[in-house]
Amino acid sequence: MPCSLCNRATRNFEIIKEREYVQCTGCKAILLSPQHHLSPQAEKYRYILHNNDVNDPGYIHFVNPLVQQIKSDFSLVDKGLDFGCGTGPVIASELEKSGFQLELYDPYFKPNKKVLKGSFDFIICCEVMEHFQNPLKEFKLLRSLLKSSGKLYCKTSVWDEAIDFHNWHYKDDLTHVIFYNKETLNWIKEHLNFSSLEIQEEFIIFCA
């Protein structure tokens, strides 16, 4: 199968519990073979089970480094988008407490496509990019929504060869279909015309 991000050839990587994973020979992304992707109905049901609560102190703590970074980088006049906000848009809720203005979009829970005709100073993509079945399409969309000085903030678990993929908990979520490493993220930066990329321990920043 060709890579769903860069369209290069892939090689067999792992078979775990009858689920087949391949690795791209170009951008090095690890991909779950499409025959193992969930149906939209099953995928939505799994997301409902995540049950993110905007008042959950544990999740608020989990996203706080990203919230603080956005508050440091932008002011209250700047406009944001929480892309893939799910059932509980915790980051948007935390930023709104400080007076920020954000739009929400989620294909299942906030499917207002009018939002995707706007432009934004910053976009949040928290624990979302690993769900992209068509990552090239999604990253092109995100890039097109950013203003010229905008920033895309992503949060995902980045894989590297020091991680034993077979026993890596992150691949066990049945809705996770693509796993990124530094080479993959740099491919996105170079081919989608982001000016810079920061890979930090808690989050990733693509700058327009």
Task: Describe this protein's structure.
The chain has a domain at 40-156 and 182-207: 3-Layer(aba) Sandwich (Rossmann fold). Helix content is 27%, strand content 25%. The chain has 5 helices and 10 strands; from the N terminus they run βββααβαββαββαββ. Helix 2 packs across helix 3 (90-97). One of its GO terms (biological process) is methylation. GO terms for molecular function: methyltransferase activity. Pfam families: Methyltransf_23.
Outline:
About 25% of the residues lie in helices and about 25% in strands. The protein is of the alpha/beta class and about 210 residues long.
Outline the fold blueprint.
Blueprint: E1 10-16, E2 19-24, E3 30-32, H1 40-50, H2 57-73, E4 79-83, H3 90-97, E5 101-105, E6 120-126, H4 135-145, E7 146-155, E8 178-179, H5 182-191, E9 196-199, E10 204-207
Parallel strand pairs: 4-5, 4-6, 6-7
Antiparallel strand pairs: 1-2, 2-3, 3-8, 7-10, 9-10
CATH topology of the domain at 40-156 and 182-207: Rossmann fold
Number of helices: 5
Strand order of the largest sheet: 5-4-6-7-10-9
Please state the second-level CATH architecture of the domain at 40-156 and 182-207.
3-Layer(aba) Sandwich
| Assembly context of the chains | single chain
Order of helices and strands: EEEHHEHEEHEEHEE
Uncertain runs are none
CATH class of the domain at 40-156 and 182-207: Alpha Beta
Q: Helical amount among residues, as a percent range?
A: 25-40%
Radius of gyration: 17 Å
Query: Can you say what the CATH homologous superfamily of the domain at 40-156 and 182-207 is?
Result: Vaccinia Virus protein VP39
Apparent shape? globular
The total strand number stands at 10
Give the end-to-end Cα distance, rounded to a whole number of Å: 31 Å
Average predicted confidence as pLDDT: 96
Strand content: 25-35%
Q: Name the structural class.
A: alpha/beta
Main β-sheet, in a few words? 6 strands, mixed
Keywords: Methyltransferase, Transferase
GO biological process, one term: methylation
InterPro entries: SAM-dependent_MTases_sf
Protein name: Class I SAM-dependent methyltransferase
